[in-house]
TrEMBL record:
Residues annotated as the enzyme's active site: P2
Domain 4-oxalocrotonate tautomerase-like, first and last residues per copy: 2-57
Similarity remark: Belongs to the 4-oxalocrotonate tautomerase family.
Keywords: Isomerase
InterPro entries according to UniProt: 4-OT, 4-OT-like_dom, Tautomerase/MIF_sf
SUPFAM superfamilies, per database record: Tautomerase/MIF
GO molecular function: isomerase activity
Record carries keyword Transmembrane helix: no
EC number annotated for this UniProt entry: 5.3.2.-
Protein name, entry field: Tautomerase
Source organism: Pandoraea oxalativorans
PANTHER family recorded: 2-HYDROXYMUCONATE TAUTOMERASE (PTHR35530:SF1), TAUTOMERASE-RELATED (PTHR35530)
Length: 71
């Protein structure tokens, strides 16, 4: 039974977009690995950008700084 966990930042991803991701990941597992769709579980976790960090700072702060440098 495949279990796939996907974490993305919460930024207005639509129900339709997430459904497409679930569908396409399920199809890929079936096509490539022969895994039955009825046994495949996909979980999408959306994380606030204040709770996702890299390069020593939150994604919110990183993007704010990037926007300032761009302007």
């Amino acid at each position: 039974m495949p279990f796939v966990s996907i974490r993305i930042t919460r930024e207005g991803n639509t129900v339709e977009q997430k459904a497409q991701v679930i569908r396409e990941v399920t199809e890929t597992l079936q096509r490539v690995l022969g895994k039955p769709p009825h046994l495949t579980h996909i979980v999408i976790e959306e994380v606030d950008t204040d709770n996702w960090g890299y390069a020593g700072q939150t994604t919110t702060e990183f993007r704010r700084q990037a926007a300032e440098h761009k302007a």
